[in-house]
Amino acid sequence: LVAGLGLAFVFGALAQKFRFPPLVGYLLAGVAVGPFTPGFVADQGLANQLAEIGVILLMFGVGLHFSLKDLLSVKAVAVPGAIVQIGVATLLGLGLGLLLGWTWVAGVVFGLALSVASTVVLLRALQERRLVQTEKGKIAVGWLIVEDLAMVLALVL
To answer: By CB count within 10 A, which of 30, 75, 136, 143 is most buried?
Structure first.
């Protein structure tokens, strides 16, 4: 845990020094101490639990910026746009999966995975550029929230 957090701090600072978002450094630190990297081996059970806590905290951060009023104000663009984007990406993933000889179910799952953007990463990028409260920022966040809700529904189904 200490090695991971220490490396995240160092890589985050280095990323910022080279004018990249600190999140890039954090991701590289995670890869460096991850279970699939040779060398340092972390406790796999603890790593999974911490990853789940991290996702919960990140989604909490998204929830802090989510306003139902903002979503409803951009629903005319965000809802149809997200649905069409999810549909097109899913069909492209399905087509590629079928070309690779996968079952149609595997192709649909692959397409759904391709259709989702990282809400947390985009939200962080919008925050750094102070665009969250602009009209385009609200549309982007609304679009991502619709994607997230659709993926929750897909996972439940």
So the answer is: 143
* CB 74 within 8 Å of CB 142: yes
Among residues 4, 84, 7, 86, the alpha carbon closest in space to that of 43 is found at: 4
| Cα R_g (the chain), whole angstroms | 18
Give the residue carrying structure tokens 């059970």: 45
84-110 pLDDT, tens digit each: 998 999 999 999 999 999 999 999 989
Tokens of 68: 């139902």
In angstroms, the CA 78 to CA 152 distance is 17
Q: What is the DSSP string of 54-113?
A: HHHHHHHHHHHH--HHHHHHTHHHHHHHHHHHHHHHHHHHHHHHHHTT--HHHHHHHHHH
